[in-house]
Backbone:
């Protein structure tokens, strides 16, 4: 491929609208083009990268006995009604009607389609276990697409579904898939991706893990214990709070607190530590706008994913109307109007002598002792965010750190959520009808490419690992107007093609500056320079994009040496997976 | 791959709802599963076939300097509004709104997206010509999906777009692409696909060709001259009519024709040949329901595609209301009410002494002589269907035959329809702004797979060409409960895997009947049978799915011989393209 013919614009300036580096590089380097919010077209360099990533994924899925299939992008809503998700998922599930008025959805995940595909086939235990997967376009109508390919609305995803006759069998396969994922990320150039325990969210099921690439620009927060290495998505990390009880319990009494609304104002006014307060956060259920009020210790924030999981319902921040009977600024857990769902966070367990709202204009209470003052059967639920320095749920030490990461893959033990709701059964060895158990396993292809770029770049562009690089060698014919350079560079180009090396050849009559800045933007891991100066020594200069080495080899040996270097780097990518 | 583990059901009975063989085979053999009208999931065997087809297409597109890119499935309507197609295309363009209320469409073709991708890049002549292509999911909301994968709503398509600075350059590239298509079809196993001149329809542009696989089950009609080989889609075949003029022109007069409505009744009543009548066919424009009446010689039918192209508007069969002023059964070209679009077919040119309706209840006319009686500036337009035995527009002989075929690909010279409407320009050598010229080139991947199946099958299943077969060899371990068979078959399986041969291994303890009928349904071109009888002779039986040969080879040489046969057949597929 000649660079001159490569379709796509490369820009000198960093695009101002890009907040993260991979997004800026993809726009600047002619990898993607914006089509609509969260929707991009890909130019050839990115298409070559994603095809290589897809091939790595395919090989690793095949290695764990996966069978590649294909589900539709457009599915009848009836399929999603069977599982109950047509109702339970919000606006991110794009619903539409076809020309006949039939309700349809755009696939954002394919559990329903997977069950539909194998439901009749897998009607006897002898056919288990098995795994099917696809690499296909998905659409998720995200409210806030961001960061280039990191969070888009349309994306290519590998999604896999396994079916089992026992939880043990699922767990065994889950472990195999976990290893396959480690191999995929290692082969794609990010062996540093870590798996963290996660919340299953709308997928259902119990155990699940996310593979996280730690980077400050990630949109996910992860709790990692500095002592024992435990890691979990914030949503899945238990927030352990130890409240030292006071010696004496104060009496509950009302205090006049004029014009005092926020938790900080209350604590200031009462001269109490914020940990000695009980704060209220108001939500409404999406389904019926009914109120949900969460009470937590003053220094703890609500983790909304935990809250949603507990309620098994979607919520949004509440808007307090006049006829709600709620006194904004003075909300407390005692004496609230009927019809409100009250959630007491576990951070209040064992806490003593707190301040809280009195549910009365301009009044707060002091001496609130939850375990004394709340009903005996009160359930304390963990809906709080774990904090930096929090207590590790595994080793018990106060050594939790909060890092940020990009989720590059996830694996779920789904249980029987889909098979049960969709009526899938099999006959077991004893002739009894049983419900199969599922697992599902996803990797976003474009996001993975962007994530690699995020951790492998310098100020001038990406540094692609050999295994997924758009080309293997970037050949520069410097001062191509010089007939000797032209002849030598053309010859090397042909030799490389003959050897099956993927080469991008820059034979434009442009300055070294333009040539190198374009090469930096394409991020090909190896570079070969044919120039008048090198030719004087009958040599070609071969260097690494990451500047780790540079060498001169004889012109006649250049193609062979390049082939050798390419294979060495490819082997290194493979070896990283073992 | 062990057959026992292959996900998908195979059926003994032919599914009753299937009208064509490829559809029946795909359902019966566990290739596809119905999800919704015109929407299917694919099991592994079909996925393997389509991936091989995609790879053949990719190689041939790369060979003519194509650059693989990717456009979105979901596009903003604004892009289609720019080209005017958001309005002009009917219900087959699926329109929907996203969560923000933005109007979107599902891509059924990507001319707009292609222009959007390269508009800024290709702003100077030096960047031309170039071609970009993608292999991507498309959705076309067909009113009547049919015949399994032949006419679906969701499908995978390779669509390519080329950009040029002159018509000559487009034509040269068009010819290269034509050759690439011939190579693709030959490599995929249907070298018999023929290219026919076609109508460009909603794509715009002038010259275009369809690649047709001739088969009686095809839904397209093609005119092929038995003398000179000229071929064209019916919509693109000129309908040449030679009317021998009568010696004397009769007087135009009204005749009382009580209770006579159809053209046959009129001709019977007047004792005239149907060729001596002028018939009327009534349409309405979709846009405003205004009437369009086509007049043709009594024996000629309207080709609606020709009519639509002439009118540059969609039409539907007319419903004649009482207040329309039209007299159904008595419609003639003279004295029609105002406001009706009248189209005179070229079959009336030179015709003499015809009968026609008198636009008056119970009256017809005789002695209608179009060139005498119609206004002098009357335009005679070819909107008639060519007939079996019609006159060839190239050699002039009455030797046109009508065949049926499946369209497996198409190529279009688009001209400037999209670049102009979307404001794409480039600076030419003289610094002047010019509009680039486009070509576009499509192949439906699933339809191609079904078409190959349609022409390569027997009563028991498909006979896949080696180049696209799901596996290369089907290994049967017959009487696998015999330990010697088990050992020999397992060993051969491992040897084949080691040699990189794609093998599907049936090691089930089932009867020969079940084993062979499953093998027939999978249609793998080569079969190897390890059985007690063969083992007695220390041999393996290797045979072709198409029964063209069968041989016994020594067990120790079997893997090598199979590898050799596979390579031979692969080479033959390649050679067919040269």
Residues:
């Amino acid at each position: 491929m000649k660079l001159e013919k490569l379709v796509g614009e490369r820009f000198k300036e960093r695009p101002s609208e890009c907040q993260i580096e991979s997004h800026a590089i993809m726009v600047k380097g002619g990898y993607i083009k914006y089509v609509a919010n969260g929707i991009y077209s890909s130019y050839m360099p990115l298409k070559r990268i994603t095809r290589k990533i897809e091939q790595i994924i395919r090989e690793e899925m095949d290695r764990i006995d996966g069978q590649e299939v294909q589900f539709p992008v457009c599915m009848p809503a009836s399929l999603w009604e069977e599982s109950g998700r047509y109702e339970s998922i919000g606006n991110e599930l794009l619903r539409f009607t076809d020309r006949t008025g039939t309700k349809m959805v755009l696939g954002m995940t394919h559990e329903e389609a997977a069950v539909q595909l194998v439901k009749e086939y897998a009607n006897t235990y002898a056919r288990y276990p098995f795994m099917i997967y696809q690499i296909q376009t998905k659409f998720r109508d995200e409210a806030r697409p961001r960061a280039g390919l990191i969070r888009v609305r349309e994306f290519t995803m590998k999604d896999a579904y396994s079916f089992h006759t026992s939880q043990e069998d699922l767990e065994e396969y889950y472990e195999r898939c976990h290893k396959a994922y480690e191999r995929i990320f290692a082969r794609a150039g990010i062996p540093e991706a870590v798996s963290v325990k996660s919340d299953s969210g709308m997928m259902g099921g119990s155990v699940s893990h996310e593979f996280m690439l730690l980077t400050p620009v990630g949109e996910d927060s992860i709790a990692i214990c500095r002592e024992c290495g435990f890691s979990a998505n914030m949503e899945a990390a238990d927030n352990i709070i130890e409240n030292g009880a006071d010696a004496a319990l104060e009496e509950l009494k009302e205090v006049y607190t004029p014009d005092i609304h926020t938790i900080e104002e209350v604590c200031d006014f009462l001269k109490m530590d914020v940990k000695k307060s009980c704060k209220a956060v108001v939500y409404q259920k999406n389904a019926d706008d009914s109120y949900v009020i969460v009470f937590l210790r003053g220094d703890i924030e609500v983790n909304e994913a935990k809250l949603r999981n507990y309620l098994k319902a979607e919520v949004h921040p509440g808007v307090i109307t006049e006829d709600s009977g709620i006194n904004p600024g003075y909300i407390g857990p005692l004496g609230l109007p009927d019809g409100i769902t009250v959630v007491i966070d576990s951070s209040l367990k064992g806490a003593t002598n707190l301040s809280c709202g009195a549910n009365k204009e301009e009044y707060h209470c002091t001496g609130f002792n939850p375990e004394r003052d709340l009903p005996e059967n009160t359930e304390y639920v963990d809906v709080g965010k774990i904090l930096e320095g929090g207590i590790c749920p595994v080793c018990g030490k106060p050594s939790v750190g909060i890092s940020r990461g990009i989720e590059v893959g996830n694996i779920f033990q789904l249980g029987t959520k889909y098979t049960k709701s969709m009526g899938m059964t099999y006959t077991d060895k004893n002739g009894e009808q049983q419900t199969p158990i599922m697992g599902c396993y996803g990797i976003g292809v474009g996001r993975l490419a962007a994530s690699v770029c995020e951790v492998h770049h310098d100020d001038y562009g990406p540094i692609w690992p050999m295994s997924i690089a758009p080309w293997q060698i970037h050949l520069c014919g410097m001062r191509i107007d010089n007939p000797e350079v032209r002849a030598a560079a053309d010859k090397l180009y042909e030799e490389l093609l003959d050897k099956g090396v993927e080469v991008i050849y820059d034979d434009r009559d442009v300055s070294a500056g333009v040539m190198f800045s374009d090469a930096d933007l394409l991020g090909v891991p190896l570079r070969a320079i044919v120039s008048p100066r090198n030719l004087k020594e009958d040599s070609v200069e071969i260097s690494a994009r990451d500047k780790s080495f540079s060498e001169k080899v004889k012109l006649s040996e250049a193609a062979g040496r390049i082939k050798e270097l390419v294979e060495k780097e490819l082997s290194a990518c493979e070896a990283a997976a073992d």
About this structure: The radius of gyration of chain B is 29 Å.
